[in-house]
Design goal:
Blueprint: H1 6-15, H2 17-35, H3 42-67
Helix pairs in contact: 1-2, 2-3
């Protein structure tokens, strides 16, 4: 995620605790979704995907703001 903005992401993870928490939560959800555990109900999987997308949008907005400083 955000490979083209690697330097900005690294900087934000170090300097912005809110961004770091969002980034970690996004990665945790990504790992859970990718694992595709059978114990995860369809509705729960759908909710995790929606939350992951919301986090991605929020992270992208922070990165965008940082680029335009």
């Amino acid at each position: 995620m955000f490979h083209e903005d690697r330097d900005i992401v690294s900087k934000l993870k170090q300097e912005n605790a809110h961004f770091a928490r969002l980034f970690e939560k996004h990665n945790t959800l990504h790992d859970k979704i990718e694992a595709k555990g059978e114990h995860i109900a369809d509705m729960e999987m759908e909710n995790m995907k929606k939350e992951k997308l919301k986090l991605k949008d929020e992270l992208a907005a922070i990165i965008h703001d940082e680029k335009n400083k």
